[in-house]
Amino acid sequence: MNNIASLWSKPPKNLVISNQEVHIWRIFIDIDSPIIKTYLPILSIDEQEKANRFCFPNDRNRFITVRSILRRIIGYYIEKNPRELNFDFNQYGKPFLSRNSSTTAIKFNVSHSHEIALIAVTQDFDIGVDVEYIHTNFDFEGIVEKFFSVNEKNVWRSLPSYHKVEAFFNCWTRKEAYMKAKGKGLSLPLNEFDVSFKPGEPASLLNTAWDEKTVTNWSIEEIKPAYGYAGALAVEASNLDMKFWQWSDNYFL
To answer: Which domains are delineated in the chain?
Structure first.
């Protein structure tokens, strides 16, 4: 996974997803692209209204871009017009494809940061994905103290300073991906489960405060979205084949 450019490839024609695969799509977000005006009609009325409520054009364009591409990707997998898809939300705000949109068991999750978005798709398994732009102009120690578990705090503080930024974003993206896969929002305390995050260490869920048996049911994987970004995937399954696709606007037209 060291060569990030070669990791992400163009999907084949007649792309399908099996029940033993996870497809991860990488999207480069160009908030100034003139093509964004063609994205808006793909959205539902509710989504268009939400887009118009954003105070800043950059946030508005980012939302329109990611949501419209999500519709095109999911629409392709279930063979339905992207405009006809309906999304519902669980009580914690996690979106899912409504039953009146498809009987196909497609599950997905979305994350975006700065100029990159990731969309992860499976057939049958709960899934979460997170991407973060790596920067250092914030209070690392304060976040570690508030959101890391006791074991994670000890590990992070034992690391040499030159590893701490990478380790922090490894930990944060893995915890976020797992929380998003569980679909319970902040009702699932970040400091009550442990993930591995030392640089060079395989990603994994180590333990949880609520049920040790759940650890063996989950896989956490590191994702390399691009240089300067960290990413992670969590899925309630093991030994799935991960496919990494680079989005282009000429797909699925």
So the answer is: 16-123+239-245 (3.90.470.20), 132-229 (3.90.470)
Q: How far is the C-alpha of 226 from the C-alpha of 7, rounded, in Å?
A: 10
Q: What is the 3-state secondary structure (H, E, C) of 9-39?
A: ECCCCCCCCCCCEEEEEEEECCCCCCCHHHH
Q: Hey, which residues does 129 pair with through a beta bridge?
A: 233
Asked if 213 contacts 236 with a C-beta cutoff of 8 angstroms, the reply is: no
pLDDT digits (tens, 9 = 90+) for 201-210: 999 999 999 8
Contact 117, 27 (CB under 8 A): yes
Q: pTM value?
A: 0.95
Torsion-angle region of 73 (φ positive above 0: left; ψ -120 to 50: alpha; else: beta): alpha
Looking at residue 108, its pLDDT comes to 97
Backbone dihedral angles phi then psi of residue 83, each to the nearest 5 degrees? -70, -20
Question: For the residues of 54-118, what is the DSSP string, one character each?
Answer: -SSHHHHHHHHHHHHHHHHHHHHHHT--GGG--EEE-TT--EEE-TTT-SS--EEEEEEETTEEE
Give the relative orientation of helices 57-78 and 45-53 as an angle to the nearest 10 degrees: 160
Confidence of residue 103 (pLDDT cuts 50, 70, 90): low
The rounded percent of the chain whose pLDDT value lies above 70 is 97
